[in-house]
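thread: overnight batch results

M.L. [08:02]
morning all. the overnight job finished for the chain we discussed friday. pasting input first so we're all looking at the same thing
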Amino acid sequence: MKIKKLTLIIVFSLTIALSFGKCFSQPLGNDKEYSLYQNNPNPFNETTTVKFSLKEDCYVKLYVTEEQTGNTFMLADGEMTAGPHGVIFKASVKTGSGSENQYDYICTLESYSLVGGALICSSRIKMKQQ
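M.L. [08:03]
and the structure it wrote out:
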């Protein structure tokens, strides 16, 4: 019985991890991968910092989508160098979702090759505004 529960937990964990993209969770400071880290602070009031790391120079689109309305806020759109980066997101209006378990935003990082423009990595995190 314990083995079945453990197997179910592992399969569930892998399913969740894979649903966020191939570069969702990497140790902070690992600039050998394409990584999007959880924003800090989270939950946040007016501002939060989104950190990410790029394995090589690439074209980056970093944007935040408000879940309730679908409004999108572009944080970065252009060529960036390899290494760690951080962008501050300032929410314009407190959304007040009314639910302790409901996230307000989804932050998406898309990295594209500078040669040919192929998508290298796409990853997402959830962010909650207080």
